[in-house]
Amino acid sequence: DVGEVYSRLLDHRPVIQGEIRYFVKEFEEKRGLRELRVLENLKNTIFETNERVLPKCEQAMQDNLSETFKRLQAANAMIHRLQERECEARKLQADKVMAREEKCIAHWEEFMKEQQKKRVEVDEEHRKAMERLKEQYSEMEKELAKYASF
């Protein structure tokens, strides 16, 4: 008797297992119906999407894509024109720089020629001054030689 009392009071496994079986059975029945409804709703949504929404989206995409494509072509043409202008401006700037360089080179060559002429003139003047000084010193030596004989 004690074992049976103990089993009834403290061993709840048979009762719990029965409750678990009942819960699983109820859950599966309700879940099965719920999943069937979810699948039916999903099927209806897919059908509506394929039949109505997708064609509307495709048409909207075609309209918008053609407009976007036209805009992109216009933007591309504008960018191409800007690049051409920039290239022309760079070329013009390079031509100006080359003209300035050539002008500077010509100016430098003219300056160097002028300096060469001035150097030749200075050298000639120096040579003449040296000759005058030599003559002057030779005359002074002759004068000194006269006074040295006294």
TrEMBL record:
Stretches of the chain forming a coiled coil according to its record: 65-150
Any one Pfam family match given in the protein's UniProt record, by short name: Muted
Key words, A-Z: Coiled coil
Membrane spanning residue stretches: none
InterPro entries for the chain: Bloc1s5
GO cellular component labels: BLOC-1 complex; transport vesicle
Highest taxon in the source lineage: Eukaryota
Record-stated family: Belongs to the BLOC1S5 family.
Protein name as catalogued: Biogenesis of lysosome-related organelles complex 1 subunit 5
Gene assigned in the entry: Bloc1s5
